[in-house]
Amino acid sequence: MLRFLASRLLLLVPTFIGISIVAFGFIRLLPGDPVLLMSGERSLPPERHEELLRQFGFDRPIWEQYFTYLWKLLQGDFGISFKTKAPVLNEFLTLFPATVELAFCAMLFAVIFGIPAGVVAAVRRGSVYDQSVMGTALVGYSMPIFWWGLLLIIFFSVTLQWTPVSGRIGLVYFFKPVTGFMLIDSLLSGQKGAFTSAVRHLILPTVVLGTIPLGVIARQTRSAMLEVLGDDYVRTARAKGLAPFRVIGIHALRNAMIPVITTIGLQVGTLLAGAILTETIFSWPGVGKWMIDAISRRDYPSVQSGLLLIAGVVMLVNLIVDLLYGLIDPRIRHGR
Amino acid sequence: MALLDIRNLTVEFKTASGWFRAVDGVSFKVDAHEVLAIVGESGSGKSVSMLAVMGLLPWTATVTADRLQFEGRELLGMSKRERRKIIGKDIAMIFQEPMSSLNPCFNVGYQLTEALKTHLDMDKAERRKRAIELLSEVGIPAPETRLNSFPHQLSGGMNQRVMIAMAIACKPKLLIADEPTTALDVTIQAQILDLLLKLQRETGMGLVLITHSMGVVAETAERVSVQYAGQKVEEQPVRGLFKEPHHPYTAALIAALPERAHANRLPSIPGVVPGQFDRPQGCLFSPRCGFATSLCRVEVPPQQRELGDALCHYPLKNGVALGHPGKGEAA
Q1: Interface contact B95-A255, CB threshold 8 A
Q2: CA dist B56 → A177, A234, A241 (Å)
């Protein structure tokens, strides 16, 4: 197990370097001069422009800029944001809990509803329930996030006024963040109604962000279950006189979990990409919204390091998924 | 009262091209302390009829019977919940493929104690003790450590022993073994059969042994039911069956035993069991039968009560086909 972990960690190094090249290169492919964008509407004397370019190192060849960046990365220096002049890593870590909170709730929503929906659809294959669930799932993951978000806002926030339109918590509540997770911080603050307010703010973004993973997980669970339901050990379980809940929920589902877990792991990437749109729609102060702002400002250090950090999180999640395989299926555990 | 009493059991499957009758009017009884073998080729409906008793057929199957009773209780009209109290406790079943019949994700101990937990009022320590007891009963060495093994860490023979231990966990009154040795090495086959018979003698349970091997039948069974294309074609005590088979199919099966072959080539039965689309009109065995006449091809044969229930127009007696018109008309 340890050897496996070490080899997987070692494999992350080339992946990481690849991503750093892509992240570094792509933002520079975009037209637009960061120095000009920083100076805003004031005209900049050409000498001053030259001087600033030199100061940021933009006059050097691109490969040299990249190696400088990589060297600093190795020393733990993720760069300084052009806009705020604060270290990118600090900004990222301040904003990331908001994204994690939203993404985690969205994934929880998708798993809690997606897996049972898929299991029941598989058990009642061909029934009206099966067809309607699979049809709904297809619509769900074909839906453009921004449009779905706006629809929900119009219906639940504007027409019914059940949920707030944007933000993480009502403006009347103020407390210093401890963990960065609003649900936890609001509880820690001890202020009455703060937690409820945080939950109410979280509902719509969670549903919007969780819709695509929900559809994908439901469909994947259904097909994985269909494959194992005909297996011999399922018949053995039934031959023991076990209740259907145990036969399906324990004997069959555990064997069907490998492809489902894989899907969940892959959806984490989709989720973080989706967070960019969802956070923008709901003015959610997370890294998604921060990235969009950074891209439009050509804030090179923020974009390249932000991408790298998000990619790191996705890779970490997939590593965890790989470790989970062994937990679920002893044949994988012992095969190593 | 018979332990298991089946009368006129019919199982039909709904397929894309209509109904397929896998079991066609089968009747037999099994008593306590008895070993009944059900023999027949693949596709003769042996397993399906027993899966119908267990209630393990897929939803595409329709089961009808005049009587399907276990200890005098009718199984067919029973609620699913009631039936689950019998299945796995009083009637247990083991299957052909031990490697795939055990769940790869759970260890032996978990799967073994599951039935105990479901059917018997035992606490965790008692269940563990009983599991160890069961494993040593089926001849698994070092049972304490084996409890934590997973199926993929055991051999096929060991896995089948675990399956048997699982099946006898709640001391069933009837054990159905569906080709328990087919997937195993020849040397292991004999061990598993011996084990099943030993357990049957010790506990006094009824044993239904589904097999396609006449050799297994000869060594184990007391009574034999021969099935062909979903029908029971003959039933006799084992001695009588080997001494004097009444149905031409049984006779052909026995003649095909390698031990009885004298010529250079092994005798065989030409053709295959009819399927959904080539089902003959009269006797189902007529296309492959050396005695078949035009009558056999048109008319469904009667059951010869006196001659082992043989389903035949011209049952064999002392090697002669009774009432057979002779070679000339046979063609």
Answers
A1: no
A2: 58, 10, 10
C-beta of residue B260 within 8 angstroms of C-beta of residue B266: no
B168: left (phi over 0), alpha (psi -120 to 50) or beta: alpha
H or E element, residue B63: strand B61-64
The DSSP secondary structure of A14-60, one letter per residue, reads HHHHHHHHHHHHHHHHSS--HHHHHHTTS---HHHHHHHHHHHTTTS
**Nearest to B56, CA basis, from A97, A244, A304, A180:** A244
The domain ranges of chain A are 1-32+298-336, 92-283
The B residues from 85 to 144 touching A (CB cutoff 8 Å) are 85-89, 92-93, 95, 97, 100-107, 114-115, 118-119
Report CB contact under 8 Å: A334, B85. no
Measured at the alpha carbon of residue B276, what is the angle toward residues B270 and B282, in degrees to the nearest 5?
65
For residue A109, give both structure tokens.
């929503």
pLDDT tens column, B293-322: 889 999 999 988 888 889 999 999 888 888
DSSP A87: B
Q: Are residues B95 and A334, on separate chains, in Cβ contact within 8 Å?
A: no
Q: Which residues are paired to B208 by β-bridges? A: B36, B176
For β-strands B4-15 and B18-30, DSSP reports them as: antiparallel
For residues B232 and B235, give the distance between their C-alpha atoms in angstroms, rounded to a whole number: 8
Instruction: Name the pairing type of β-strands B174-178 and B67-70.
Output: unpaired
Comparing CA positions, the residue from A12, A21, A8 lying closest to residue A307 is A21
- Residue B191 has phi, psi (to 5 degrees) of -60, -45
In percent, the amount of chain A with pLDDT more than 70 equals 99
List the single best residue of B59, B89, B101 to mutate versus A (max A Cβ within 10 A). B101
pLDDT score of B327: 58
Our CA-based measurement puts residue B107 at a distance from the nearest CA of chain A, in whole angstroms, of 9
Nearest-CA neighbor of B184 among B108, B101, B98, B100? Answer: B98
Which residues of chain B does A127 touch, with a Cβ-Cβ cutoff of 8 Å? Answer: none
CA A284 from centroid of its chain's CA atoms = 14
Mean pLDDT of B71-87: 92
Would the pLDDT of B56 be above 80? yes
Task: State whether CATH 1.10.3720.10 applies to domain A92-283.
Answer: yes
